[in-house]
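Internal ticket #5521
Category: modeling
Description: The requester needs a full-assembly model to guide mutagenesis choices. All entity lines are attached below as received. Residue total reported by intake: 830.
Assigned to: D.W.
Attached entities:
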Amino acid sequence: MAKTMKHVDAVCVGMGWTGSIMARELTKAGLTVVGLERGANRTPAENFVLPTVRDELKYRLRLDTMLDTSVETITMRHEPGETALPMRRWETFNMGDGLGGSGLHWNGITWRFAPSEFVLRSHLTQRYGKNAIPADVTIQDWGITYDELEPHYDRFEKLCGVSGKAGNLKGQIVEGGNPFEGPRQNEYPNKPLILSQGGAMFMKAAQGLGYHPFQTPASNSSAPYTNPEGLTIGQCQYCGHCEFFGCESNAKASPNVCVLPALMRDSKFELRTDSYVSRLIYDKHARKVTGVVYIDRRTGEEITQTADIVILSAYPFNNTLLLLLAGIGQPYDPHTGKGTVGKNYCYQTIGGVSLFVEEEINPWIGTGTSAASIDDFQADNFDHGGLGFFGGGYICVSGSGGRPIQVRATPPGTPRWGTAWKEANAKWYNHNLSLTSHGCNYAHRNNYLDLDPTYKDAIGRPLVRQTYNYRDNDYKMSAYVTAKAAEIAKAMGAKIVNPPQPRTGNFGATNGQATHHTGGCIMGTDPKTSVVNRYLQNWNASNLFVMGGAVYPQNAGHNPTGTMGALAYWSANAIVNQYLKSPGALVHA
Amino acid sequence: MVDQTIPRRNFLKGAGVAGTAVAATLSSGLAACADGQTPSAAAAKPATPPSEPLLTLTPGEAAFLSAVYDTFIPADQFSPSGTDCGLVVYIDRQLAGAWGQGARFYRMGPFLPGKPEQGYQLPLTPREYFANGIAAANAWSRKTYGTPFDQLSPADRDAALKTMDGGKAEFVDFNSKRFLETLYQSAMEGFFADPIYGGNRDKVSWKMVNYPGLPATYATKAAEYRGKKVNLSPQSIADLN
Ligand SMILES: Cc1cc2nc3c(=O)[nH]c(=O)nc-3n(C[C@H](O)[C@H](O)[C@H](O)COP(=O)(O)OP(=O)(O)OC[C@H]3O[C@@H](n4cnc5c(N)ncnc54)[C@H](O)[C@@H]3O)c2cc1C
């Protein structure tokens, strides 16, 4: 007989960024909380120390901190009707695993989405007319506004000690910041990081072209900092080993540094790692999830944990999978457009251009973020009239390290091997930069998640099946924004600018890109077209709250995690101040 | 089976045809390399295999990889040859270890070819993939040039690898272009990774591009170094241990 644990007030499924924040907020409100994490326990002090933390092969190539695909992966195909095949190892994006989730080894680029993104469909309809959005572009409003989210962005930025410069303080445009950002109540908690050579060249060139460059906001602290949890964040060492690595100087914000030490001191919280949630227990009549079943990975034992509140904080794929397995809500069907679970799965549309310059770049001095960016071609910050696409992205310059297995571009015409190849590497390693066009990915009718009919994970569940391709809007947007990046590259005085590489061709499981997945459990105002309401509360189970990118109706052109942190605080606030007083639906459809 | 006998047979067959010109390329480290080999076989071996004992590669496989890595990374003013930089030792340890044996690799069937965009879909672990790829490459080399790959002249090795890179080498039941990519990736890893893995001996590739390695703590230097040529003597994990 399956073992049953003592009932608790709340259980969090997954202990990455969103799970850790929710657990902290709920225990602070007096609730008993259990955090279930599929992967191992790990702490920066034990697991990420000099000199072994600076190991490009182990962390970047062999993906030591990532989810083991033999335990769980996803299958992938381009169109409904095709046969999906498993990603047998990560060759494009990577899924986090273990305490802290991907928050442990992210880069720390910490954005707020543009205000227009939250009301995307109404905004575009208003500005470009009611027939402007193509029928297969299934974008939606979020059911929440930037202004409502602003105080919660502020909290997440303070939690992480974000380094940056405000561009819009209470409506006043501030020199040196991002003038396109929504109004903010407060300056960033830390000053911007020291600008790199590439960053300085990018800022100058972009300014010369009439754009509005600024230093990219970073959860890499420019100075020692104590966050509102009383936890200390160290100073960034510009080590060039951020993304994919743990941070030995505790300067990169992570759940492990910014939240978990406080949470672990609270006796109302209990962490259980190696605890792999296999399913939710759904009482359809009561419209409640009464608990979860998980496998203790050390013993194989199946264990039931009941709770009054269930928080799904297991990243978009597992969040969607667990809803589909439990039969909560109607699965999305691309043929009819009906159903919601799995709908509007989105990714990110990234292009770039590589350039070669005379200046000494010293790429090995790097932080987690791109040194500098412009938002002039982001969201609806520019007129899309006649362009044939919507959305955009930010353009930024590389700056996250010169790790030599991977960061070593050579000019076109360089042979792939031999003495001439070595000569080109010796000559250009210190003189190469790349600009990235980090674009949005707007929802499309045929991009969605469901259950794979064939392949299973290590605990016997079907794998999630991703049906996904780039679509017309993505190709056009990427071509446009990447061409702008190439113009900046030229203006940087580059000796050689490689041909721009916007996103073209099919989505591939083999070409490395960001791990920014959204959708599958989208938020909105109507249960017919969304899975959760504006408080991230599930329409079919009022005690179930879904976190993370899963709830984005479509993905914006900025990295997604800042918005996840803000939404977690927003949802926690609604649970503590409204739901606990009167458990039940917070929005009546 | 395939992974052991075929390359071994290739190797023995090749041993008989090794000419003096090739034999003259033998490195001084050769004598110590022949772990488990007969002295005559070792003496006839044309490539410059590593002087360390190997964990999993057969002599024939080591000869093949040595010839490939020395073509990618020839000895010149920038570095010693790929083999002398430790690349065969590097890949031998990788293939013998968890990664090579298929750790962190989803291995449930059915195995279908799929589209190239669906990524690697073979049931082979990296160890098995290398064994099969080397066997297929040597079979193709014998058919095309009359000898296994490691017996080819440097110019023919280069041409053969370019044919594979161009997708024009017709291996039997094996994707030659993808195998070339795998070989190339392994060379880049071995050459540029921390020397702790057996390649990049004496931090030679880091010196070549002027990458300072570790400890990489530049908070007090980031402003000072901006835009300047900086010559730091590279430090590796072992240097700082
Ligand atoms: C290399 C890399 C770099 C990145 N850089 C940036 C960046 O610079 N800026 C940015 O905005 N974003 C970045 N991201 C994305 C960012 O890391 C994620 O958006 C963020 O961590 C997601 O938070 P989360 O809480 O939703 O999920 P995660 O942090 O991934 O946590 C989810 C947790 O749930 C656990 N889990 C999953 N399923 C189960 C289950 N069934 N039972 C129990 N536990 C389960 C997982 O093991 C994991 O620990 C990066 C991602 C990667 C991989």
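Resolution: model delivered.
Comment from assignee: The two ends of chain B are 41 Å apart (CA to CA).
Ticket closed.
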